[in-house]
Specification:
The chain is mostly helical and 539 residues long. The longest helix has 26 residues, at 37-62. A 3-stranded mixed β-sheet has the order 3-5-4. The chain starts with 28 loop residues before the first strand and ends with a helix. Helix content is 59%, strand content 4%.
Length: 539
């Protein structure tokens, strides 16, 4: 998961991952970002305030003493309120309306020439941020920030104690505020669309439903074939006792191999793994560790590392502007899921890294060969916890959350009914029911943070991830040989050049078409799963 405050920055690119200048047919181009200095100066100030708020949020989830919760909520609320006030100020509005058509959000060509592509993109995205923020009263922004900060702290305690009732009053409050936010933002068909658009611009229920239907139509039969297969994979080796310090040591080693720069990044522990960034030199990932769940720390490190590489790969020249931010959470999730699954669960990856893991945990893995380990980490078994789900069942977890969120926001469901509804949908989608709310409705941090509309980006990220990875294999013919030799930087550089460094220069769809020649589609992802699990389970 990525905790995102618009305005967060980027870290320095590796020297061999430099963006090329996009071609433009507009001539002459005389307006550049230099002309926009009065605007970018103000945006940079807003980014620094948001960065300070994000730093306080990171500390809240990692090192803050339990007694500091209420004071911290007030601190974060004040900073986010201040950032909002500065964004919607008369000064920013005056600058934007001078250069942007308010009706279309597009940059206005000036009498002495056209804007270059970065300037046009910056104005488009800055107008999007401004016009959205302008719809939200500052006192509402402060109130929402405060309540979400408090709710997150109560959620963590409620999950630990398995007490949904403890979290329920806060969930009611946050849900009411998110419904209010949707009304402020406005929507055509559903208030949920207004919240989806925050995380994945242009995304709506109408576009997601058919996509999810296509996935479900092939995932459910594939899952049935796998569960009925005569092949039974033993993954009990993943639940042997594994020293937690050594697990963290191995996770750090993999992050370094991926290219995560520890001079400009950290790895810490939190209740729910996440990534956040504050500055080009400060990107942070977290993980969690269980002695008897080897996959938890291992794959959360790789997953969050994928997020971290994106943040470290944004172009530092545009720090503080929309061009120094990720384009969408669907694209962001594509990077984490690409590293976690396409790479981290591949045979090629473990040809190099399994002997190292086997050496670290010699007692547990001495009798386990590479192929047994590969099968174990790709074992399909409907599970309670989303973040630990296999690739085949993962999207079913997202679909049930997608349905629940719509019903909550549209008022068909109340928070009081959630445990029962959750369990019913788990039985419908996965055939299992959690015995404890901590493993059910309380397992995700998102609703405490007010992140309604975030969950669908995980499925979009899965689809994007395979499209991007398949394209990388075309453009880097020996990619999997490189990965098998432990040389992960060749992929990291390709992603930096193709995706990371562009920020919000292009829309998510435009970026996908530039990289792969196609908009996001389910076919490559489904073909990838059918091939992988068809081989593993001899279907």
């Amino acid at each position: 998961m990525r905790l995102e405050t618009r305005g967060n920055g980027a870290a320095l690119l590796p020297s061999d991952a430099v963006c090329y200048t996009p071609e433009t047919e507009r001539t002459p181009v005389v307006h550049t970002l230099t002309t926009l200095a009065p605007l970018t100066t103000r945006l940079l100030e807003i980014q620094r305030i948001n960065g300070a708020a994000s730093l306080l949020s990171w500390d809240q989830e990692t090192y803050m003493p339990a007694g500091g919760g209420e004071a911290r909520a007030e601190q974060i609320a004040v900073l986010q309120g201040l950032a909002h006030q500065k964004l919607v100020s008369a000064e920013v509005e005056s600058l934007l309306t001078k250069w942007v058509n308010p009706a279309t959000g597009q940059a206005l060509d000036q009498p002495d020439g056209a804007w270059d592509e970065p300037a046009r993109s910056l104005l488009r995205e800055a107008w999007r941020d401004f016009s959205r923020a302008k719809k939200l009263p500052s006192d509402f922004v402060i109130r929402l920030s405060r309540e979400c900060s408090l709710a997150q702290q109560v959620w963590a305690e409620a999950k630990e104690q398995n007490k949904f009732g403890m979290f329920l009053p806060h969930l009611r409050t946050v849900l009411a505020l998110k419904r209010e936010e949707a009304q402020y933002l406005g929507y055509k068909d559903s208030p949920y669309d207004a919240l989806l658009d925050v995380y994945e611009p242009g995304s709506t229920i109408a576009t997601l439903r058919p996509l999810f239907a296509q996935l479900k139509a092939r995932l459910v039969p594939l899952l049935k074939k796998v569960t009925q297969s005569s092949v039974k994979i033993d993954d009990s080796l993943l639940r042997y006792p594994y020293d937690t310090a050594r697990q963290l040591e191995f996770g750090r080693l993999v992050l370094i191999a991926m290219g995560y720069d520890f001079e400009r990044g950290r790895l810490d522990l939190s209740a729910h793994p996440f990534t956040t960034s504050f500055h080009p030199t400060d990107v942070r990932v977290t993980t969690r560790i269980y002695e008897h769940e080897l996959q938890s720390c291992l794959f959360s490190c790789i997953h969050e590392g994928g997020h971290g590489l994106y943040d470290q790969g944004l172009d530092p020249r545009y720090f503080g502007t929309p061009l120094g931010e990720s384009v969408s959470l669907g694209i962001h999730e594509s990077q984490s899921r690409l590293w976690e699954n396409c790479v981290g669960r591949s045979r090629a990856f473990w040809r190099f890294f399994y002997p190292i893991l086997q050496q670290i945990f010699h007692h547990q893995l001495r009798g386990v060969d590479n192929e047994q380990f590969y099968a174990a980490i790709n074992c399909v078994r409907p599970s309670l916890i989303r973040v630990e789900a296999d690739e085949l069942t993962y999207n079913l977890h997202i679909m049930l959350r997608f349905e629940i969120e719509q019903d909550l926001i549209e008022g068909r469901t109340t928070p009081d009914d959630l445990p029962g509804i959750w369990n019913q949908k788990m039985r419908e989608y996965l055939g299992i029911v959690p015995e404890r709310d901590a493993e059910g409705v309380l397992q995700d941090v998102h609703w405490s943070l007010g992140s309604f509309g975030y969950f669908p980006t995980y499925t979009l990220g899965n689809l994007y991830s395979v499209q991007f990875y398949e394209q990388a294999k075309i453009e880097i013919p020996h990619l999997e040989d490189e990965i098998a030799a432990g040389q992960l930087m060749v992929l990291r550089r390709w992603l930096g050049q193709k995706i990371h460094c562009w920020g919000r220069m292009f829309t998510p769809d435009h970026l996908a078409q530039r990289v792969t020649g196609s908009s996001v589609k389910p076919e490559p992802f489904l073909a990838y799963l059918e091939k992988k699990y068809g081989e593993l389970y001899k279907l």
